[in-house]
Amino acid sequence: MPSKELIGNPSGTGPSSAGPQLVLLLLAFATELAAGSWCSPYALAVTSDGKTLYVACATANRVEVFDTALKKVIRTIDTPAPATGLVLSHDAAKLYVTCAAPVSKVLIIDTASGKSLLSVSAGHTAEAPTLSPDGSRLYVSNKFSGDVSVIDTKAAKELRRLQAVREPMGSALSKDGRLLFVINSVPAGRADAGYVAAGISIFDTAAFSPAGRIQLPNGSAELRAIDVSPDGAYGAVTHLLARYYLPTTQLERGWMETNALSILDVPGKKLLATVLLDEPDLGAANPWAVRFSADGRQLVVSHAGTHEISLIDAAALIKKIKETSRETSDDLSFLAGLRKRIQLQGRGPRALALAGNRAYACGYFSDTLEEIDLKTLRSATIAELPTAPMTVARRGEMLFNDGSICFQGWQSCSSCHSPDARVDALNWDLMNDGLGNPKNVKSLLFAHRTPPAMSHGVRGSAELAVRAGIRYILFTVRPEEDAVALDEFLKSLQPVPSPHLVSGKLSPAAERGKALFMDSKVGCAKCHPPGLYTDLQTYDTGTRAPTDSSPDFDTPTLVEVWRTAPYLHNGSSATLRDVLTIANPHDKHGRTSHLTPTEIDDLVAFLLSL
Ligand code: HEC
Ligand code: HEC
After folding, report:
1. DSSP state of 30
2. What per-residue confidence (pLDDT) applies to 71?
3. Fold of 508-607
4. 443 neighbors 452 (Cβ within 8 angstroms)
5. To pair with 253 at 20 to 30 A between CA atoms, which of 245, 316, 492, 510?
C-alpha cells in the first residue's frame, strides 16, 4: 500500500493535534488529485468473456473501466477513497469496490451505468473482497483493523467482524463457501524465537467462528495473495521465505531471502508443501498475485519485484509435491520443467486477472496494462492508464520495491521493510554491527529526521544507511541519483492514523496514559518527547541481550508503534506491555515498577494511539 492515501499527522505532534493537519493534508491531496495522479493499479477484475476489465487505482480515487477489444478506457468511476480491491458479482451486473481509509467504504456499483448503488462501511484499510458462491456475502480484509468484515450484499450491511491475526491482506473460500481462508501478511509474536512466521486463519462462515489455522514454514512473511482451485481441492498462497537466521553475508542460492508459493489442501485445512519460485542463480523477487486458470490447469503468479509472471503447470506441480512428500522445499530447481517465466514490460505487477487463454497484469509503477497469451506466452502492453508525471519520490518508491536491481533478483528493500517501508517483523543479522547479534527490522518512517540510524546508531544518518543497504544488502552498485530517489521516497512517508483512535481522538484510557507518559516520575517524555517522540540520543535502557556488542541503543520514534511489533532492538518483546514490564525489571527504561496493571494498560493505550 502506498503511504499517501492514508493521511495522518506529518510532524508527529501527536493525535490530539491531528485535526487541522488532516485538513491541510487533505487539501494538498485534493490539489494533487486535481492535477492528475498516478493510478497505481492494485487490483483487477475481468468479465468471464474477457471483454471488460476493471482496474482499481490505489493512489487515486477511481476505478478505470477498460474495453479489451477497443483497447481503451471507456469509463472512469470515481470513488470516495483510493480503490484497493475489486470483485464482480457472478452475473457481472455489480462490481464491489473496496476504498481504503481509516473507515473504509465498500461500494456496490451497477456495472451497466457505472453508478454507485450503495455503500457499506468496513474497517481500517480494506482490500481484497471475496464473494461467496451464492453471492450473498462479501468478505473484506481490513489490514490495519486486523480483521475481516462480513458483508450482507443484499442488505448492504456489515454483519460481523472476524478477528484475524495481523494485517490480513486477502482471503479465499472453499468451494461450498463454508470455510474462509484469510492470509495474515506479517508474523506476530517475538522475533527472537526459534519459529517466526505468518500464517493463515480459517473461519467457519456459517458459525462466524475460527475453524483452524495453517502454520507456514519458519521465515514465512509478506503473504500477499491466496486463490483456491476451481474444483476446490487446492489453495495457493504467495509469500517470502526468509532465511533470517543466517548472517546476511551473501545472496547466492537464496541465502537470505527466497520467494515462495505454498500449496494448501483446502478440505483438509492443511499445508501440502511450500515450493520456491526462484532458480539457483536467479531469484524471482516479491511474488504477489496468484490465480488458478478457470480450468484449474495453470497457476499464474506475478512477481512484483522482478516484473514478470510465472506460468506453472498446476497438475504437474501437485503430482510432484505428492511424490516428494516433504512439506518444505529448499530445492531451487523444484519448478524446473513445470514453470515458464515471462518477463513483462511494466514495472511492479501486483494484480492479475485471467479470462480464457489470456492473463492481464498491470504495472503498479508504470501505470500500464499488459495482456499475456497463455498459449504462445507472448505479452504485449495494451494500455497506458491515465497517470501523472513521475516524481523523484515516486521513482524512489519504485526502486524500493524493485528486486531486479538486486544481485540475481533475490530481494528488494521491500522484502524486509514491506512495500510501504515499514516492517516484516523479522530479525536480521546485518553485518554493520558485527556478527551474531540479530536486529529487528526498523520502520523507515521518520528515519531521515531521527539520526543516527540503526539500533546502535552505527550509521550516522539514514542517507548513509540507504547507500549501505544498496551495497551490502542488495549487493549491487547504483548511481547516486537512485540513492537520492530512495531518500526522497522515505522522506515522503506519512504516518497512518492509528486504528486505536476513537473518531481521530485519544480514548479515555489513552488520555490517562498520556498523563502518565508526560509525568516526570515515570519519565518517558524525557527521552521520547512529543513531536517525533525521540530526543535522538543513545541510552542504556537495560535491554541488552547477551549477544549484543554494546548496551547502548538509539532512542526510537514511537510514532506508529501500533504497527511495528515486536519491540526493542532484537524484537524480544511481543507487546508494548512486555516492554514496560518484563523487559524493564530494574526501572532503567523509565520508571514503571510502581505502576498498577491498569496504569500500564493506560500507558499502552496511549502508545498504541501514536
Ligand atoms: C534483509 C532485510 C533487509 C533489507 C532487504 C533491507 N533492510 Fe534496511 N534494515 C534492515 C534491518 C534489520 C534494519 C535495522 C538494523 C538495526 O537496527 O541495527 C534496517 C534499517 C534500515 C535503515 C535505518 C533506519 C533507522 O531509522 O535506523 C534504513 C534507512 C534502511 N534500513 C534502508 C534500507 C533500504 C533503502 C534498503 C534497500 C536498498 C533496505 N533497507 C533493505 C533490514 C533490511
Ligand atoms: C533513558 C531514555 C529512555 C526513557 C526514560 C524511556 N525510553 Fe523508551 N526507549 C529508549 C531506548 C534507548 C529504546 C530502545 C531500546 C532497545 O531497542 O533495546 C527505547 C524503546 C522504547 C520502545 C520500543 C520501541 C520499538 O519500536 O521497539 C517503547 C514502546 C518505549 N521505549 C516506550 C517508553 C515508555 C512508555 C517510557 C516510559 C515508561 C520510556 N520508553 C522511557 C529510551 C528511553
Report:
1. H
2. 93
3. Cytochrome Bc1 Complex; Chain D, domain 2 (1.10.760)
4. no
5. 316
CA distance 67 to 65: 7
In contact, 190 and 574? CB cutoff 8 Å: yes
Query: What's the CA gap between 4 and 493, in Å, rounded?
Result: 7
Q: Quick one: what percent of the chain has pLDDT higher than 70?
A: 94
Contact 366, 333 (CB under 8 A): no
Tell me which H or E stretch contains 482: helix 480-491
How many whole angstroms separate alpha carbon 542 and alpha carbon 547?
14
Domain 393-491 identical in fold to domain 508-607: yes
What are residue 74's phi and psi, to 5 degrees?
-105, -10
CATH number of 393-491: 1.10.760.10
Q: How far is the CA of 538 from the centre of ligand 1 (A)?
A: 19
Which residues lie closer than 8 Å to 290 by C-beta, 6 or more apart?
A: 224, 225, 226, 227, 236, 237, 238, 261, 299, 300, 301, 302, 352
Nearest CA to ligand 1 atom 9: 441
Q: Domain spans of the chain?
A: 1-35, 38-163, 393-491, 508-607
Q: What percent of the chain has pLDDT over 90?
A: 92
Which cell numbers in the block locate residue 286?
516479491
Which pLDDT band, with edges at 50, 70 and 90, does 329 fall under?
Answer: confident
418 CA from centroid of ligand 2 (Å): 23
- List pLDDT tens digits, range 172-183: 999 999 999 999
Mutate to test the pocket of ligand 1, among 248, 259, 429, 430 (most ligand atoms within 8 A of CB): 430
User: Alpha-carbon distance 379 to 372, whole Å?
Assistant: 4
pLDDT one-digit tens code per residue, 232-267: 999 999 999 999 999 999 999 999 999 999 999 999
Hunting for cell 492528475 — which residue is that?
36
Residues with CB under 6 A from ligand 2: 455, 517, 522-524, 526-528, 539, 541, 543, 553, 555-556, 558, 561, 564, 567-569, 576, 579-580, 589-590, 592, 603, 607
Q: Distance (Å, rounded) from C-alpha 370 to C-alpha 51?
A: 14
Rounded to the nearest angstrom, the gap between the alpha carbon of residue 219 and the centroid of all alpha carbons in its chain is 16
CA-CA distances (angstroms) from residue 602 to 301, 517, 583?
45, 10, 18
551: CA distance to ligand 2 center in Å?
Answer: 13
Give the CATH class of 38-163.
mainly beta
Amino acid at 111: T
The verdict on whether omega for the bond into residue 566 sits within 30 degrees of 0, i.e. cis, is yes
- Cβ–Cβ < 8 Å for 349, 372: no
Coil, strand or helix at 430: coil
